[in-house]
Specification:
This protein is mainly α. It has 8 helices and 6 strands; from the N terminus they run H-H-E-H-E-E-H-H-E-H-H-E-E-H.
Length: about 230
């Protein structure tokens, strides 16, 4: 909507847009078909909280390959001795970049509620924090967030079923109040995913150090045997 308003106000530089589009097209033309191999793929695991892990795992590995592919001119080009095929390899830095970019996607795929309900819940948390309160009524939040009654009811049904909200009754008051069961649950889930992704990098670094040590040891043994 912001772009539409800027366009209507005549504040969009179409020449810059055309140049940016041309630059992207030229960059795409420079890329050539090449095989991507990820030597660290065996160490990459998804957080246990992710739903449909098999499909998400395939997307995760493909995303890393895409990042590697777009950096093909920054990579050493290997040649397979048996097939003669040219290929490039994924680096640890590629995986770290992929983890940073895909973190939000994994977070959404680990959520037990829909995106719309999640957005409502996070806006609700902000509202309660600003108001410095823990309980609320449906009407006050509906008026503040400008929601229809049926839409809010649908959100509340899902949040109640998944134990994100609970109903509260105050003594002597017939008004129905609600309370968020755990305001920090989304942040805790985010930290869990970040920890799982970082653990993959740690495992890769450990394996790299071990391989380097093993290679060095074999060279020393080979040198001693020849002398």
């Amino acid at each position: 909507m912001f772009y539409q308003r800027q366009l209507s106000a005549g504040k969009i530089n179409h020449e810059e847009e055309h140049q940016a589009k041309g630059l992207l097209q030229n960059c795409q033309r420079l890329l050539k078909t090449i095989t991507v191999k990820n030597p660290f793929a065996e160490y990459l695991t998804l957080p246990n909280s992710v739903f449909k892990p098999r499909r998400t795992n395939a997307h995760y590995l493909q995303f890393i390959e895409v990042i590697t592919f777009y950096k093909q001119y920054q990579k050493f080009h290997h040649i397979d001795k048996e097939t003669g095929e040219e290929y490039i390899e994924t680096s640890i830095e590629d995986i770290q970049e992929a983890n940073e970019l895909i973190k939000e996607v994994l977070l959404r795929k680990s959520d037990t509620i829909t995106g719309a309900s999640r957005n409502y819940l996070e806006n609700l948390k902000i509202y309660l924090e600003v108001q410095n309160q823990t309980t609320f009524t449906a009407y006050e939040v509906r008026r503040k967030l400008r929601l229809t009654k049926t839409t809010q009811w649908r959100y509340h049904q899902q949040l109640l079923e998944n134990n994100y909200l609970k109903k509260i009754k105050k003594k002597g008051d017939t008004t129905q109040y609600y309370e968020i069961t755990n305001p920090n649950e989304y942040k805790e889930l985010e930290e869990q995913i970040e920890g799982a992704l970082q653990e993959c990098i740690t495992q890769i670094n450990c394996s790299t150090v071990q391989q380097s040590f093993t290679t060095k040891t074999e060279r020393i043994k080979k040198t001693k045997s020849t002398t």
